[in-house]
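#structure-requests
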Amino acid sequence: MCGICGIFHWGNGQRADGTALLEMNHQIEHRGPDDAGTLVSNTAGLAMRRLSIIDLKSGHQPLSNEDGSIWIVFNGEIYNHAELRQKLISRGHTYRTHSDTESIVHLYEEYGPNCVQHLRGMFAFVIWDKLRNKLFAARDRLGIKPFYYRLQDGTFIFGSEIKALLAYPGVRAEFNPGVLAEYLAFGYVAGEETLFAGIRKLPAGHTLELTEDGVADIRRYWDLSVAEDPESRQRSYYVQRYRELLEDAVSSHLMSDVPLGVFLSGGLDSSAVAALTAKSRREPIQTFSVGYGEQSYSELPYARVVSEHIRSHHHEVQVTRQQFFESLPDVIWHEDEPICWPSSVALYHLAKLAREHVTVVLTGEGSDETLAGYTRYPWTVWNARMDSVYRGATPPTLRAFVREQIHSAKLGATLRRRLEHTCLGRDGASWPSFYFDNFYSAFSAAQPGLPGLRGLRLCRLHGGLGAFSRNSAEAIALHRH
């Protein structure tokens, strides 16, 4: 990963503060230890920390077009950049580097904001168009790469992490109480806001244009298609097509001029990625696994079986209870907001292990969502079917009485928890109760507000925020189903 940040002023006659820009960039040094660069051009300032993956020698940023009228800072990888390069050269563009970053600059020259339609990859980038005196920013289709910004009092600042924005003079770390209920319900904030007042996220699949008059034009350029296949096909077709797409996706992600590895849990998702990576490489790949001393909660035995099968160079780390809690402040510092998922701590230790051996890793993230792999998906379907029968055979008063008895009667904790997950303990007429409260929410919508939370203020990251986050993370982990 790399890191970007920057400043843009309008309407106030200010020149971008180079000292502030350097401090913002310093805050994300851990994202890019290999190189750093800054550009201050009147009202705009761009900065970047680089983790070198492609074109190690000449990929320095900020990077410009041929005449220096367009500049870019970019975090990500463009998997079709070689193809784009040939097309752009044929249209008269001159390349000075072999990096994928330069293709974005020339695409912008050709297509303006529509340049994103030609990109295949993960990215967050900002382009400073000097001639038109405007900024153009974009985030990849699924929001893999982060992009935070603050637009206030004639100043726009942005960064790959919130801590970069907090380093800008006058920006205070103030709590945004409006999103607390959403965070406690789902463990994250899905919209544009963050837990910090005034700091927002550019949504996935969106672009942002900011002109010298201070108008921010945010537009969605992509959304997932849900159109049904017009043809009736055999199951074998979809299985084969999925395999082809998966192999193509893994192959495209192997583009790297530095050592590459795979996070391996032993589950179907990461095992498939590791196996396809091993198939594409001539030499044995490096795999990395994390586990715990409690064998019943550890995936290490499964990962070892897969590693032996694909003959990888395998590495393991075990996280103790003490290490888990001791690492919470560091994990929160990296994530910038309170953490909810215990897996964040395990991934932190796994990443530390991997960094000792490789620069880039592939993972199996996202497959459970795309292939309905989580237990809650079939459980919800089963619940819905049972509820349709149950609701048709019983009156509302009886169903309400049963729910009340499950919640209040003297039942064992295990039995109560299991019944609360069924249509007997949930109101099938309420989708939030039936699905979200059942599998996501730490606190249900029916519970009264929690006194005192609205008055909390998030302090600087290693101080009050760290203490608040550790307590909230433990509480949510304990209360989650």
